[in-house]
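Tokens as discussed.
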């Protein structure tokens, strides 16, 4: 059992839901990423999605696009991200980390090299938003060699046929995009999302996390009522981008925000 599976199993046994925050590696500067990862854990994160900066993040809204731009000003690469994870593992051997990004940097590195180096660094899973399941076989074969999960996205428009294919190929958990559009959208309809999650559960035993449109404790608590995980991205990244104080103040801001979400999930 890898770290992701163990995390969800432990949460299930305790009747709790996973809190999965997203940050972009290298944002606002490379030196901040490692302490930010530790602050997320301190704030109550169960799993962390670490974004790999990319020059054309087509699935992301302006908030996360700008975070990539800030990181790329420092030339943060996939290899840099893996080095950050490796350092994080020196003091944290249990918090799962999923790399989230786009296929191009992985293709440049090579599937086998990427999978081997990700495993060595302590990565637990990968979510590549522009790699459809029907084209993922080659990468998935390499990921499986190192017990790395491949997480896939589901959306409100995913057909049942495609849902079944994704459920067959996915591991770790499923990421349900609760809204049509890019990250940062805020037109969350709780009843619609709850109904869709129930439909997905009829077709898989994998945990289902919900992201997009979760802005605060109230929306996090509502989503936790019917999902296995709450994924928070733009609302957190926006705080990082807007913060104007020093690093210590930023870490306190992030820890406090995550702690509020953690409390909301635990009272869902």
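Sequence:
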């Amino acid at each position: 059992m890898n770290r992701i599976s163990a995390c969800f199993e432990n949460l299930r046994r305790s009747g709790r839901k996973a809190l999965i925050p997203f940050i972009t590696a290298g944002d606002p500067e490379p030196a901040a990423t490692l302490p930010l990862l530790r602050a997320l854990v301190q704030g109550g994160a169960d799993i962390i999605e670490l974004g790999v900066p990319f020059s054309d993040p087509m699935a992301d809204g302006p908030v996360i696009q700008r975070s990539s731009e800030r990181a790329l000003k420092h030339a943060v690469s996939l290899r840099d991200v893996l080095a950050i994870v490796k350092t994080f593992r020196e003091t944290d051997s249990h918090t799962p980390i999923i790399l989230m990004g786009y296929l191009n940097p992985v293709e440049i590195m090579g599937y086998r090299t990427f999978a081997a180096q990700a495993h060595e660094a302590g990565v637990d899973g990968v979510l590549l938003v522009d790699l459809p399941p029907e084209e993922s076989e080659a990468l998935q074969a390499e990921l499986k060699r190192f017990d790395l999960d491949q997480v896939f996205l589901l959306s409100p428009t995913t057909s049942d046929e495609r849902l079944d294919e994704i459920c067959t190929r996915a591991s770790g958990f499923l990421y349900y995009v609760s809204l049509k559009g890019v990250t940062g959208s805020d037109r969350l309809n709780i009843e619609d999302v709850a109904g869709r999650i129930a439909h997905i559960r009829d077709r898989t035993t994998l945990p289902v996390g919900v992201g997009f449109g979760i802005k605060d404790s109230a929306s996090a608590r509502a989503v936790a009522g019917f999902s296995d995980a709450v994924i928070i991205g733009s609302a957190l990244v926006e705080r990082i981008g807007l913060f104007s104080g020093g690093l210590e103040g930023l870490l306190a801001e992030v820890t406090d925000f995550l702690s509020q979400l953690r409390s909301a999930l635990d009272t869902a």
